[in-house]
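Final report, section 2: Outcomes. Of the targets proposed, UDP-glucose 6-dehydrogenase is the one most frequently requested by collaborating groups, and we therefore present its record in full.
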Amino acid sequence: MKYDLAMIGLGNMGISVLGAFLHRGKTCMGIDIDVSKLNALQSGKMIVRESGAAEIFEKARNEKRLDYATGIDQIKNAKVVFISVQTPAKGNECDYSALSGVLRQIALQAAPDQAVIIGSTIFPGGLADELLNELRDRPDIRLIYEPVFLRAGYGIEDYLRPGKLVLGIDDPDNPPPEIAELLSQVVEAEPKWVSLQEAEWIKMVHNAWMCGKISFANEMGALCDEYKVDTNRIFDICFSENAQGRLMTLSHMKPGAPYSGPCLPKDATILGGILEKQGRPWMQSGSVLEALRVSNENYIDAIVEQWLATGRETGKPLGLVGLTFRPGFDEMRGSLALPFIRRALAEGLEVRGYDPFFDGIGIEEFMLVCRNDKELESYHAHCSHSLESVWNECGVVLLNRNLDINERRRLDDFSDCPRKIDLYGNKF
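The predicted structure is given below as tokens.
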């Protein structure tokens, strides 16, 4: 018999994905080394608690669209092979022994140019470092890594209508058309074809974000309880935003500059004080809320050290482009530039800074932007340089803002660029 799908591994994921294909009327084979599982399934018993699975499998069995086997010798008759064996944690590493064993067998049994999808969790580097070697003698096999995001008990529905369909492959620009067509008949989502390594990281980022959300909610909930406020009401209002909101969008989800300014650092520090006084005992070590401040401060320290070390190496002044706390806003309090200036001056190093708000302004105007903070008065001489002088005379430049098109044109005449630490992804 010819199959649309051969599913290797009939645990929660395997049953869910297999059930989704069967629901769409596909002909499939389920493969597992556990004979008791196969006997139960063949007798009509569902081996996992999965919404709708019993009816879907019974219908497929009655229509003779579903076979079972303990070995993989028939996978060559399938359009695609899907692997869903376990990759459990072993300490802080991943145990790929079962997956490696399956790949070795597939290398011996697969048809020429057969597509093989791995659904089992693979952590970043797992494919390149450990698993691809199992297929070294079968370069014709078209390997795909599909990070699957399923809820226990609702896996069939989640696979049919996922939030995203991610498919990692060697050449994302040329996905196999027959596999794309088959998946389009099953999954109601536009596929995102990415590299194998990108697919590994998408799985990691997704699950790490879920861990962060849950830990954040639990810690905030504990603090809200101490203040006798309704956590659910607080969260409902915070996260039920309209299109102008920023908490539930990609706003601030681009790696780059640390947070700074007059508000966020202050609030993170005060939150740390509340945590110290009101936090539960289990929150006193390794708290997510405390890490909000500590991680940001450590990141700033690391960038400052990189900037200073590069400046010392070149023997030239250190440059800063972007001095206000936010690009396009005339406020110096809490600016990310301040710890850079303080450290450099404390070590007797020369600093030259440029910001369009400070370009050519005198000390009185400068102090207005600094809200008359006397500590910053002595910084005026370091912050009022032109963009051209910073670019031409400094050994390293920290880019703390996006340069606009006119500023980039002003730099076109400079053939030699300084070393750059770019926090905003400027393109030169």
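The chain has a mean pLDDT of 91.
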